[in-house]
Amino acid sequence: MKVISFDLDGTIADSSFADAFWEEEVPALYARKNQLSIDEAWRIVKRSYEEVGSEDIRWYQPEYWFNLFDLDEDVTEVLRRVKDRVNLFSDALEVIEALYQKYDLIIISNAPREFIEIELEGIEDYFSASFSCTSDFGVVKKSGDAYLRVCSKIGVAPGDVLHLGDNPIFDYEVPRSIGMRALLIDRTNDHGGSGLKDMREILRMEPFSKDLKVKR
């Protein structure tokens, strides 16, 4: 293996940051704009999210929602207001530090580019590249084609990449279908124990166990 690829939300960070933006900040802005209560604003905003749905690329695009709701604020400034809600998993940080000694690390995420840049602040130097399927490739899920495009952009064969992520379809089955290696991260045992409950288990596997020095 030459490259280790990480999913972001659910793998390196939990959902607190994204939830704060979509479920708190956007409804609060809509409430102020339209002189509504937070509860009424959230009902309207949530209904709008549901009407578009996660299979539509617009669902992932902050600018689309700010235009739809006629919100005047800058998306990045609003995201920075909830930057303190970014919560990185300690086991992921330890693994990233260890793997960085020997491997090229990248991010492949469905999150919009604006989210990725803020969530990675402070650890961005560990990663040689980051890819947003929604912002960079215009697709709503990590398809086989998206993974192949990443491999092409960084100049490696799929078999040279190990991908780590928490979705059993898009982080495990799809990358394996195009020849990548993949490991499922399942901290909450949602997938019948088929994944790793602690990402640090990777460091006990070959080839990592032989040539990595893990800082404690």
Would you mind describing this structure in some detail?
With 216 residues, this protein is α/β, with parallel strands linked by helices. The chain has 2 domains: 3-14 and 87-211, Rossmann fold; 16-84, no CATH class. 44% of the residues lie in helices and 12% in strands. It has 10 helices and 5 strands. The protein has helices at 16-34, 38-52, 62-68, 75-81, 90-99, 113-119, 133-137, 144-154, 168-177, 208-211; strands at 3-6, 104-109, 127-132, 161-165, 181-184. A 5-stranded parallel β-sheet has the order 3-2-1-4-5. The radius of gyration is 18 Å and the shape is elongated. The model has no long low-confidence stretch (mean pLDDT 94).
Run of helices and strands: EHHHHHEHEHHEHEH
CATH level-3 fold name of the largest domain:
Rossmann fold
- What CATH architecture label of the largest domain applies? 3-Layer(aba) Sandwich
CATH class type of the largest domain? Alpha Beta
Q: In angstroms, what is the radius of gyration? A: 18 Å
Q: Total number of β-strand segments?
A: 5
**Distance separating the two termini:** 24 Å
Please report the number of helical segments.
10
